[in-house]
Design goal:
428 residues, alpha+beta, Pdz3 Domain, 2-enoyl-CoA Hydratase, Chain A, domain 1, 6-stranded antiparallel sheet, 6-stranded mixed sheet, 11 helices, globular
Length: 428
């Protein structure tokens, strides 16, 4: 029975590779190379000391095949493939962090607002060196997700190594249903300036952004602060559609290009409904992917002033392929480029920046750089969290007397005030 199975697999792969070889101009020996894998599989299943699960071996081989490529390409087993779909819907279960692999270690891109990780004070660039006292060195994204997510109410302990900390820090977090708050809007932050925090690019982001901008418009706001700090990205089309709200004239927003993917341009419409309102965009090291697309488009088109610290540097495009039977493949197929042609992808092996004076390759460099100390950022994360009490206005989770100044936000307000003063002056 097993021999028949392997003969079928062998013949199928041979026919596929033979048909591909007819189109190949390089004449490489892919078939002989993949035969080695099949030989290992066949010998292992026939001779290993104990009975083996063939499907498990095949899944492991598929995962290992992608591991040398980059930290975003993944073979997705049914549970993980389903989780990916759920995540883009805007709700899933877990502790609430976006993660990547850097230098072989599981690294936090950003905590999501209102989640257990966010409330505990987990920071961007924290390295998760252990999960339940097991090392994460060499772990894959899918393995980490499986360990971190679970039934709401259950606990998971992670060990963090933070830049500047002398010893690792243990956090025991209680898993919860993660409902992503896409947009938080303050129609008038101060002196006629509106404020919108955009936390995620999921299927609801554009619609929620439109609602927030309508609130801003009703207040006759004279300026807008768009806060993309700790926005980990998400759906490309949502980032593009939101950019169209501010950029008109059929201008280029972003383009993608890959080895097998021809250049594809995403352009603005002829007219943008909010192309005239003065804007400042806030970014930091937790701003990634879609957030960088939006910030880069606004920066290159001279549509907004970017303020804050250098962004994460993720410019790779993943295509998700349904492999059937519940399996999926997330594969990096292209990179995206800002309108000026910048590829902001950060090198996988590059070390984390140790000082504010050591910029790394990749990411969006703000027009006005303000590097905030880690401890201040941690406090800002906490005080942005709002507590809702029935019949009362929301209040910060941090007492007023314990709050710290958000110097990036303060600077943004000052910039918009200065723009308004100059505009009023030249009109006289």
């Amino acid at each position: 029975m097993k021999s028949k199975f392997f003969r079928t697999v062998f013949i199928t792969i041979f026919l596929i590779l033979f048909s591909l070889s007819l189109e190949s101009k390089t004449g490489d020996d892919t078939y002989s190379k993949i035969k080695l894998l099949l030989d290992v599989l066949n010998y292992t299943t026939e001779n290993y000391v104990e009975e083996v699960d063939v499907q498990k071996l095949i899944n492991s081989a598929a995962k290992g095949m992608l591991k040398p490529l980059d930290s975003f390409s993944q073979f997705l087993e049914p549970d993980h493939y389903k989780e990916l779909k759920v995540e883009t819907e805007g709700q899933f279960g877990g502790i609430g962090i976006r993660i990547a692999i850097r230098d072989g270690w599981l690294t936090v891109i950003t905590p999501l607002p209102g989640t257990p990780a966010y409330k505990a004070g987990i920071l961007p660039n924290d390295k998760i060196i252990k999960i339940e006292n097991e090392s994460t060195e060499g772990i894959s994204i899918e393995e980490a997700v499986k360990k971190l997510r679970g039934t709401p109410g259950t606990k998971v302990t992670i060990t963090i190594m933070r830049e500047g900390a002398k010893e690792p820090i243990d956090y025991t977090l209680t898993r919860d249903i993660i409902k992503i708050e896409v947009v938080k809007c303050k129609p008038e932050l101060v002196d006629g300036i509106g404020y919108i925090a955009l936390y995620e690019f999921n299927k609801n982001s554009y619609n929620e952004m439109v609602k927030a901008l309508e609130m801003i418009k009703k207040q006759n706001a004279k300026g807008l602060i768009l806060d993309l700090r700790n926005n980990p990205g998400g759906l490309l089309d949502q980032a593009v559609e939101i950019a169209k709200l501010f950029i008109g004239g059929n201008k280029l927003i972003v383009y993608t290009e890959g080895r097998k993917s021809p250049r594809r341009e995403y352009r603005a419409d002829k007219v943008a409904p909010y192309e005239d309102i003065p804007m400042v965009v806030l970014v930091n090291a937790g701003s990634a992917s879609g957030a960088e697309i939006l910030a880069g488009a606004l920066q290159d088109n001279k549509r907004a002033i970017i303020v804050g610290s250098q962004t994460f540097g993720k410019a790779s495009v993943q295509s998700v392929i349904d492999l059937g039977n519940g399996y999926g493949l997330k594969l990096t197929t292209a990179k995206y480029y800002t309108p000026s042609g910048r590829c902001i992808q950060r090198e996988e092996k590059e070390k984390t920046v140790k000082t504010s004076t050591e910029p790394y390759s990749g990411g969006i460099i703000p027009d006005i750089i303000i590097n905030v100390p880690k401890e201040i950022e941690a406090k800002l994360y906490q005080q942005r969290e709002e507590i809702y009490i029935p019949g009362q206005e929301p209040i910060s989770a941090v007492k007023k007397e314990e709050q710290v100044e958000d110097i990036v936000l303060t600077r943004a307000v000052e910039i918009l005030k200065a723009i308004r003063m100059y505009t009023d002056y030249i009109k006289k």
